[in-house]
Amino acid sequence: MKTLRLLLVTALWITLCTRLSSCSKDLETMPLDSIGGTDTDKEFANYGITDFKNIEMRSCNGIDDNTGDYRWGQANFAGLKKNHLWIASFDRESKQRLAEWTDAKEFQKTRRIHMGYGEYKDVTISGIALRQIYSKANSFVALVQLQGSNYGENLYIFKTPTSVKELKGIDYYSIQEWYKESILIGNCCYTLGGDTIAVLTPQSSSSGTILSSNLSSFTESIMIYKDDFSNSIYLTKHNYEYDKKIWNVELTELSNEPKDARFEVNLLESSTNIWKYKVDITHYDGTKKDFTFSVNIETGTIIGEELPISYANLKGTWDMTKCYGWEYNGEGVKEDWEEDVTGEYIFFESTHGNGGYFDGSKTNYFASSLDGNRLILENSDWLLGKSITITKLTTTELHITATEASSVENYEMKKR
């Protein structure tokens, strides 16, 4: 099993716009680390690029910790080789090459650009910078910035083993890793080949503190958050394409913790539609505990961790959600039935088996004992004469089956 980091999530929950602002236009006028000159040549040599003197308009970027591109952890180089655009990217610390590429077509230093309203002007490119690169599966996406006098243009290059695609006119300055070998530029999700997968909608509002968020598809994520007003904790599936919640359920076990408790959420398993979480809880006085549960991410159904059958785990109130079974009628024919049990519940007061069943109008108290997975009721009219088996006990669910020769009753309950 694996534990997943919180990846791209705080901005996702608070608002997709927040993510976008992290790649805002304030980088447009940010100077490069170095364009030409001794410092540039030194950095080329440091990363094993020995033919740098033959590279025109050469630049290095991401090395100076005073620039915004330092955050990517890359040393990025660009220029023209025999009038062809050339880029190379290295891990800044290890100096391992991430990607290198030379364009097959000749570079147009002078070009005519549309200024809007049918007006054009001729510009001359005087600077080339590789701002960021994302490489994976023998493919890469690169953000190249072209500069001239009163002119700047972003060029996104999508390179796969079989294709090269360029996208222009995108005003965002960041490539974010997304879901299953896709990337996010601004609010648009692309394949590594440059095809659009989805356009995402900025989240309209937020009133919660994100505890965990993990993408479940190109347009959806599963999040755990704490409501800022009620302090209740919820698990939700959010769709970013249409900005709506698919489902939203309260994690009552966490909501019942002290308001100042700290939570550390780990996603243990996500290879199927049943995801498993472990939440480590720390109280202000240093008390530590944990809560493990699973969820069907298609329906939002919480599946508690299977627990050993004991009074310590049975203690509490269990609200009935479903009651069904079968019995033989007067003609000896087996008939299925289901009964509305809204408002009914059972409870165990202590770890000694004392409890009761509330049938909607009165409480039938009982004493009980456990024999493996069998619950033996004493001094109780409820389920009198029937063999009772606990078929499921989790942190959130209790199922019991009561049988006799001519009938079977099944009760499904949720912990209050």
Task: Give a quick precis of the structure.
With 416 residues, this protein is mainly β. 7% of the residues lie in helices and 53% in strands.
Write up this protein.
The protein is mainly beta and 416 residues long. It has three domains: 38-197, no CATH class; 206-300; 309-413, Calycin beta-barrel core domain (Lipocalin, Beta Barrel). The protein contains five helices and 31 strands. The protein has helices spanning 10-14, 16-21, 37-46, 252-255, 311-314, and strands at residues 34-35, 55-61, 74-81, 84-91, 97-102, 110-116, 119-136, 139-148, 151-160, 163-168, 176-177, 182-185, 188-191, 196-199, 208-215, 220-227, 233-239, 244-250, 262-269, 274-282, 288-296, 301-304, 316-328, 334-339, 345-348, 355-358, 363-371, 374-378, 387-393, 397-404, 407-415. The strands form six sheets. Strands 23, 24, 25, 26, 27, 28, 29, 30 and 31 form a nine-stranded antiparallel β-sheet that branches. The chain has a five-stranded antiparallel β-sheet with strand order 1-2-3-4-5, covered by helices on one side. The longest helix has 10 residues, at 37-46. Residues 1-34 have low confidence and may be disordered. Keywords: Signal.
Count up the domains: 3
Q: What percentage of residues falls in helices of 4 or more residues?
A: under 10%
Question: Cα-atom Rg, whole angstroms?
Answer: 31 Å
The helix count comes to: 5
Q: What does the largest sheet look like?
A: 9 strands, antiparallel
Principal-axis shape: elongated
Low-confidence stretches: 1-34
| Strand-pairing-aware structural class | mainly beta
Strand content: over 45%
